[in-house]
Design a protein that fits this description.
By secondary structure, this protein is mainly α. The chain is 70% helix and 11% strand. It is built from 4 helices and 2 strands, in the order αββααα.
Length: 186
C-alpha cells in the first residue's frame, strides 16, 4: 500500500510538473499564462484557441493540485502506520493488551480529520471550477450559454467510517477491561 501511494504521488507530481509547472516556467515573470487546455480537479478543459490566464490564478491551481497529492500520500502513510500498530499486538496473541483501543481511537479521529481535509480541498477545487466556468460563459458564449453550474457535495463516507472506528474502539476498551479482570482473577 505504501509503495502504491508513493508511486501515485510521484506520478501526480510528474504530471503536475510536466503540464503546469513547465508552462509556468515558459511564462516566467509574465502577468498571464497562455493555455490550450486547463485542469480543474478531475476535469480537463480544452480550448479551441490559446487563452490567457492570470499567473496568480494559475499558481493557485498548482497549489491546490499539489496539496491534494500531498494529502493523499499522508493518508496512505497514516493508514499503513496505524495498521502496523494494530496488527503488532494481535500477531503476538494479545488483542487486548491496552494499546489497541487507543490506536483505534486515534485511527478514528485521524480518519475524521482526513475526511474534513478532503472536503475542504474538494470545496476549493469546486469553487475554482465554478469561477472558471463563469469566466468561460462570459468570454465565449454570453448569449448562447445561459448558466453554468458546478455542484459541491460533501463526502460523508470518511466521517461516517471515522465515527464508526472511534465507537468500535470502545468495544476493544471493554475487552481490555475484561482481560484485566480475568488476569486479576487468575
Amino acid at each position: 500500500v505504501l509503495l502504491i501511494a508513493v508511486i501515485q504521488f510521484v506520478m501526480r507530481l510528474v504530471n503536475l510538473g510536466t503540464n503546469q509547472i513547465a508552462l509556468l516556467m515558459e511564462h516566467q515573470g509574465a502577468d498571464v499564462v497562455k493555455l490550450s487546455c486547463f485542469d480543474i480537479g478531475d476535469f480537463k478543459l480544452h480550448f479551441l484557441k490559446e487563452q490567457k490566464m492570470e499567473t496568480k490564478y494559475f499558481i493557485e491551481g498548482i497549489i491546490l493540485e499539489f496539496s491534494a497529492a500531498v494529502l493523499s500520500l499522508v493518508e496512505h502513510v497514516f493508514l499503513v502506520y496505524i495498521f502496523g500498530k494494530l496488527l503488532k499486538p494481535m500477531t503476538q496473541g494479545l488483542p487486548y493488551d491496552g494499546t489497541v483501543s487507543k490506536t483505534l481511537r486515534a485511527f478514528g479521529v485521524g480518519y475524521i480529520l482526513m475526511g474534513v481535509a478532503e472536503n475542504v480541498i474538494s470545496y476549493f477545487q469546486t469553487a475554482r471550477a465554478s469561477h472558471m466556468l463563469k469566466e468561460f460563459k462570459r468570454i465565449f458564449l454570453p448569449v448562447t450559454l445561459t448558466d453554468t453550474e458546478v455542484q459541491f457535495s460533501i463526502n460523508v463516507g470518511f466521517l461516517f467510517i471515522g465515527v464508526m472506528i472511534f465507537l468500535f474502539s470502545f468495544v476493544f476498551r471493554y475487552g481490555e477491561d475484561l482481560q484485566v479482570q480475568a488476569d486479576e482473577t487468575l
